[in-house]
C-alpha cells in the first residue's frame, strides 16, 4: 500500500510510523487509520522488527478523530458499518510492543490511540484530553474505559465531563505515561526504548505483553494463573536456556 497520510522508517530493529497530516493536526480520518493499520500489521509480520514506535509532529500526536469526516455520520448506518472496530482497534491486535511517542496534542481519538499502545512516552510539550463532550458526544474508541483504568475514576470523570486537558507533568503523575522527556529527544528516546525491547527474547516479549494486558481483562487469580502457565511454557524455549546460561557465564545473551 502507498501511504499518503503516514510515513514509515526503520531504525535498526524498530519500525517507526509517523502520522503525517500536519495541516489537520493529524486528525485521524478513515484513510489515515487504514494506512496506520496496514503499517502496524506489516511491522508485526516482519521478523527483522522487534518493536514499533508511533509518533506525530511536534505540534500534535493527533488532535482526535476527524470531526469534518464524522460530522455527517448517522445512526444506525454508522453502528452497522463498525468503522471503529475495523480500523481503530488494529493496534490492540499487534503482537509486538507498540510505543506511542507523544508531543503536542493527544486529544480525543488521539489520546485513545496513545492509550491503546503498550507504552506512552511523552514529550514535555504533550497535552492529553478527551474533549468530545464539547462536541455533544463522548469518547468512542475506549477513552471512558482506558483513561479511567489509567488515572482513576475522579480524574477521568473530571477530564471527560469538562474536556480539560492534562499537561505532560500531570500525565506522568497520574500514570498515564511511562516517562516525560525533552521534546527534542522524544523520537531518539522512543527508538532507544524500542531497541532495548527488540534486543530481548521475542517470545518472552510477546508473552509478557499478553500477560500484562491480561491484567486489564481478568481477575487477579486468573491473571496470576495465566502468568504461571506462560512463565512455565518459556522453559520450553531456547531463549530461557540462552538467557540463564549467559547470566551464569557472565556474557550478554544472544536471542535470535
Ligand atoms: N478533526 C478535523 N480537523 C481538525 C481536528 C479534528 N479533530 N483538530 C484540528 N483540526 C484542524 C482544524 O480544523 C484546522 O483546520 P483549518 O486550518 O482547515 O481550519 C487545523 O486542524 C488547525 O487547527 P486549529 O486552527 O483549531 O489549531 P489551534 O492551534 O487553534 O487549536 C486544537 C488546536 C486545540 C487542538 C483544536 O484544533 C481543537 O480543539 N481540535 C479538536 C479537538 C477535538 O475535539 N478532538 C476530539 C475529536 S472527536 C474524537 O476524537 C472522537 C473519537 C471517537 C472514536 C473514533 C471514531 C471515528
From TrEMBL:
This protein's name: Enoyl-CoA hydratase
EC number: 4.2.1.17
Family matches, as Gene3D superfamilies: 2-enoyl-CoA Hydratase, Chain A, domain 1, Lyase 2-enoyl-coa Hydratase, Chain A, domain 2
EC class (word): lyase
NCBIfam families per the UniProt record, alphabetical: PRK05862.1
Stored Pfam families: ECH_1
GO molecular function, one term: enoyl-CoA hydratase activity
InterPro entries, per database record: ClpP/crotonase-like_dom_sf, Enoyl-CoA_hyd/isom_CS, Enoyl-CoA_hydra/iso, Enoyl-CoA_hydra_C
Annotated keywords: Lyase
CDD domains given in the database record: crotonase-like
Phylogenetic classification of the source organism: Bacteria, Pseudomonadati, Pseudomonadota, Alphaproteobacteria, Acetobacterales
